[in-house]
Design goal:
The chain is of the alpha/beta class. It contains 19 helices and 27 strands. The structure holds 6-O-phosphono-alpha-D-glucopyranose (G6P). 6-O-phosphono-alpha-D-glucopyranose binds next to helix 9.
Length: 609
Amino acid sequence: MCGIVGYIGREEAAPILLYGLSRLEYRGYDSAGISVYNNGCLNTVKAVGKLQNLIDLTDSGKNVPGCVGIGHTRWATHGQPSDINSHPHVSASGKISVVHNGIIENYLELKEMLISEGVQFKSETDTEVVSQLIDYYYNGDLMDAVSRALAKLEGSYALVIISSEQPDVIIAARKDAPLIVAYGDGCNYIASDVAAVLKYTRQVSYLEDDEIAVVKADSVTVYNEYGKPIDKAVTTVEWDIEDAQKGGYPHFMIKEIHEQPKVIRNTISAHIKDGRVDLSDTILSEEFCRDIRRICIIGCGSANHVGVVGRYLLEKYTRIPTEAVLASEFRYSEPIVDEHSLIIVISQSGETADTIAAMREAKRLGAKTLAIVNVVGSTIAKEADCVLYTLAGPEIAVATTKAYSAQLAVMYLVTIAIADKLGRLDAAEHDEIVRELCLLPEKVEHILADKEKLQQYASQYFNNESIFFIGRNLDYAISLEGSLKLKEISYIHSEAYAGGELKHGTISLIEPKTLVIAVATYEKLFDKLMSNVKEVTARGANVLCVAQQHNSGSATDAVNNAFFIPDTHEMLTPSLAAIPLQLFAYYVALSRGCDIDKPRNLAKSVTVE
Ligand code: G6P
């Protein structure tokens, strides 16, 4: 969603801001803008649509001179995408310029108050209220005006503010939306995401809720919620700028698909010691596991689909009642969880608004939370009782692939660890699963080497108007993800059904030549799914089947096209079955000429409800 960058130093700010915004494009946006201080004035330029429009309008920043500035990519929430509604928002007097991520919930009330005081508004946004309110309180001290304005705001925000009256300072404030300060040499930066500044520095501090940073060219002072200056830990970012670039691939998505063997290997090997799964540095002690009466897995989108896999696995291997619940539903469902509940929170970004709210609700009710998160220092990582990081590196394509695979890997580890503590996994099976886990990266390589086959299937089916996915048990969970991937990036209508549900309605949609993708890797229900395949082929559907290699004989006979994954332990088939579905979605979208890395209307990180 929206992205923020700020710079103060001796260099020209605009090119740095525009570059930073380009690194944030992947988050999803529909307009962009910058404000730069020069000669007593704030010069603000905005453009709707792609960032390139703003780059063209400013001649790559050359016609917006000055060494202090802020920039923003906006994903519209209040008011349609337009130049006026884009950020930065400048107060009517022209003194204060603000960029904002999040939502100010009481903005109408504040707007009314300011209008009654004679303030004139230009936009429909909640953010303009912030710049006007700061200006209203401004009396020669920017920090004082910002603090007074913040005290009146309800909602969530990452705010970055500059003023034509005090151009030697940028002020940043955070509440429920990520913000970092990054330290340069004779200059400093502010950003919503490390990617924006990594070209210039690796030294960053993560702001916490209710903290305010006063950033100057040669100093940074962070104040806590009581207005006291505090020492902030400075972290060195470990990943490289190359990790966030395409590296010769035409799209981030296909690059990230190819990174999956490495990502799975790194994520697994971090938690296997002497041939055993070792999560001893988490809350999963034997005493804790014995006390768990219920497990809830919460997340949104693909993270929820990992939760559905986890639900099947945890119930099967630990016998603890487990549910996978959408975070947006969980938070308002008056959930029945207490101190005997384990809540597994899954999120790539660690900043998804619904997932954060659901986690907080679970904690309020006394449950223990274990987070599976990719972004170090994110809100969920900080607030959960313990965190297991997915070592996927930065994921840029909006449609997740490698972070999803890393989440699956952690889900296996958690399942094995709990089952082990409860004495439900005998040593031989434990060792067999771990052996197969360690072979997963190689088997994923094997699938990737066969990608042309999926490209060929995609070229056969890319014109279909509707594509259905069916599967049972773990294959149903994978079908949900395969269907989401396809619709996200190709805009083809797609639905996933549990095989047994077909007859209860969906089969009426099957016409001659409708494509049905049958995921049939779950050995115990292979024959059942093949019966579903017969039901749809009898009605003229084309079927593309994904099955394990050892079933190639029976699967090939029953379907039009098939893709075989290497055989593996039955717990681990999701990791292999997901790959051909990702590739199929990618190649279909490619054939249709879609904007694969930045699909319409979608955002990488959904930081508002
Ligand atoms: C967005 C992304 C999805 C992602 C979901 C949850 O919708 O486009 O790819 O699965 O958010 O995001 P999270 O960061 O919490 O995993």
